[in-house]
Amino acid sequence: MKNEVKSTCCYCGVGCGVLIETENGKISGVRGDPDHPANRGRLCTKGATLHLTAGPSGRLLFPERRLQRGQTGQRVTWDAALESAADRFAETIRRYGPDSVAFYISGQLMTEDYYVFNKLAKGLIGTNNVDTNSRLCMSSAVAGYKQTLGADAPPCCYADILAAQLIFISGANPAVAHPIVFRYIEDARAANPDLKIIVVDPRRTETAEIADLYLPINPGTDIALFNGMLHLLIRDGLVDNAYIAAHTTGFEAVAELVKTYTPAAVARICGISELDLIQAAEWFGKSKAALSLYCQGLNQSAHGTHNSVSLIHLHLATGQLGKPGAGPFSLTGQPNAMGGREVGGMANLLSAHRDLGNPEHRAEVAALWGIPDVPAKPGKTAVDLFKSLDSGEIKAVWIACTNPAHSMPNQAAVRKALHTAEYVVLQEAYAGTDTAEFADLLLPASAWGEKHGTVTNSERCISRVLPAVAAPGEARHDWEIVVDFARRLANKLANPATAHLFPYTNPEEIFNEHRETTRGRDLDITGLSYGRLETDGSQQWPYPDGAQAGKQRLYEDGRFPTPDGRARFVPVQHQATAEAPSSEFPISLISGRMRDQWHGMTRTGTVPRLFNLDDEPELAMHPCDMRHRGLASGDIVKVANPRGEMVVRIAERAGLKRGRAWMPMHWGSQFMNSPGANALVSEATDPYSKQPELKHAAVRIDKLDLPYPVAVLRRCASTEEARALLAEARSLLSIFPYAAVGLYGRSAPLVILRAAEHGPLDSAQLAAVDRLFGLDSTEGEILYADAKRQINKKAIVRDGRLFGVRLAGEALAQSWLKQAMAEDELDPSLIRFALAPSERPPVSMPSRNIICKCADVSDVQIQQALAQGSDLASMQQTLKCGTFCGSCVPEIKRMVAEYATKEAVPV
To answer: Chain-centre distance of CA 875, in angstroms?
Structure first.
């Protein structure tokens, strides 16, 4: 029986609405919800393939307890698992005090999950050691809002993109990281040809390609740029003095400070031209509606808070805030980072945007929870939390729905801390994450499509999430796990004052309690309920009791949630990156996102077609830097600094200035033989937000002499088979000095191993590789061996199709074989050419251009459909092209029109 359930996407903070299609109790498809205000039916490539990640494959299905870390866990009952965890936490708390335990949670949890974790730590146990991976992505934006505007409340909405006359994008690449936002930007450009777009980024990104002005600033020089723009706004009379006088405080001190940020000084610091700086300030100052979009490029910095502050200054100085098309708009990195902040799920926060350091706020929360007090001692934020695990100050940690053994900076130190920790509980949906290796107890949690609760997106829009299917195995909802554990722990701690804290039997009861904590606060949602969210759809906060709608944009009246009602200018000076390049480590390594992958690829890395654009870890460099080191695209290099190293293939990429290299942050130990870029990043943090500087590290890059290549391409009958083989292939990563594994393909998924060695593999090593990939059969084998050149190749043919290929000593053919095998394009008579030493296929294979990236539909498929009589509507029905983000529809229409014209011409 087919069914359809409303939910949201589980990736970025756009919070797209999705309709989950189910059949016979399984998720069978997904499409964008046309009624959801965030995306209006659009989805990006990741959201469009969510259904392909559903199911039990790779999931943690039942509780496991390990007698020794790294070993296979023993299956235990939920009672046994939670009793043992409660015993261990209770004993640790009794012996060492409440601050000897900690919780590290996730911006992908539901708000209700977050709420009970926060209450467990701060209300029941009496520790503020509860932090979240949102510390790594949004905490600087939070601190910037609070220092200037008074509250963690993004003042804008997605509708402002369409109303803007200037869009100022800084430290963000929405074309890749927030594709639905980028679609709005494209819509705005199409509707208003006079729209100006400025992009600020050390790398010329995909977003920068649509910019009217691109500013390639030096890494970490954002404050200098914004102060320089403010200098020019003041000099040229482009500030709104009336707005400043009526609605702000502190302007005089900042105006005095920025006098030294002359165009010449800023151009020198930032590495841009004075004319471009002047142009940017002029466009911003003369615009009637200037909208700023910013994300990790500003946030992930040792001075990320002041990056945000200095950008917000531009809006306050020009009165560009609280009106359509104007304001500072932080793009959230995770689907519910906002919801977690709303319930106080961080070490320095309390429920409903209350501050832990405020005694009145602590008393209010204690009264709401019915407990004597909330502890005043600040909790450990992410970086310090893991340092405290290493030092032994924190003995036990509970990690939920996040993978710090991939995402934290200085991976060697983080993994050492996890290894040192006395007790690690991992509450997780997936069995094979990097962090799972360090867990003593693993608790299976529900995942996307199975969860229920609420989430809040970048524009303060709360959506109701409904489950489409039941969780597999014995997996439970996160809130259920926490509540069950909390009740057991409360019994063992035997504190009558906290025995009543967890009466919940469903998530709605948790939501209702959270709702009450917001009464009278800036994010008041007392007018919302599950019923209203299900009936009226997603709603923006504030939505107080009696309201008929939420508030689209904030501060329209010029009143701010500060003691005097005024926004604040805060004097901020330019600061360099935490570490500067040097003669020993001369390259600035910057990181970012790939279009089709998410975080550590735990979910997206199971979908073969999401590797079709980027299928191997690569480090991008400027051609001059490559020539200086004797490097060419395809060479293998070691990237290193005192914290760690990674061995990776190099590629010449446009968009980088000399002295900079770029690496996607997604690649890690599941796909290469190092933890990736985060192994090299320092633990330096912003003093206000405690967010680490994940965006920059000083490194050296040296060519490695690994002349013996190895490549294996193995076709699989199903995605499930490919995932299982990929998991096995990971065992080979550690035996080569360079190695990477991954998936590829569409209907015929491939598992691909690429490796390189100092010298030839012996026969036993080759046999082991063949055995792992199922290529050890003699049936249907084709062999090629050149003992003199130490080349050994093998192909297996089954039913006239190429089943697998292993290339050792020379692997040029891999460049075309992956498409030929995935698309089944190699005629049986030409299969022997799979072992030929050629980068070119033996015959001309169809050149494929992917038109619809979301549905992975090529121009060849569209041409074939047109030849069979299809039009746009029928192709949307059969191929699904043009039914997700919509960016491909104009190109498909063009192809339809061209085909019709060609057919109409008489022969």
So the answer is: 31
Place of tokens 């007018």: 527
Q: Which of 457, 511, 505 is nearest to 484 (CA)?
A: 505
CA dist., res. 492 & res. 496, Å (int): 11
**Residue 506 vs residues 30, 113, 423, 467: alpha-carbon distances, Å:** 26, 11, 29, 13
- The 8-class DSSP code of residue 207 comes to G
CB-count exposure of residue 240 (10 Å: 0-12, 13-18, 19+)? middle
pLDDT at residue 715, rounded to an integer: 96
User: Structure tokens of 482?
Assistant: 């926490």
pLDDT at 570 over 80: yes
Q: How high is the pLDDT of residue 888?
A: 87
Cα 388 from chain centroid (whole Å): 26
Residues in the chain: 907
Distances (CA, A) of 757 to 709, 735, 803, 808: 6, 9, 25, 10
DSSP string, 315-368: HHHHT-SSSTT-EEEE--SSTTHHHHHHTT-STTEETTTEETT-HHHHHHHHHH
Give the CA distances from residue 275 to residues 62, 229, 262, 591, in Å, rounded to whole numbers and listed in that order.
62, 12, 12, 28
> What's the token pair of residue 133?
């991976």
Residue 432 has which token pair? 């094979």
**E strand or H helix at 624, and its extent?**
helix 623-628
Longest CA span, the chain: 91
Residue 717: CA count within 13 A, CB half-sphere: 3
907, pLDDT greater than 60:
no
Beta-carbon contacts of 48 under 8 Å, excluding residues fewer than 6 positions away, are 30, 854, 855, 880, 884, 885
Distance (Å, rounded) from C-alpha 155 to C-alpha 147?
A: 14
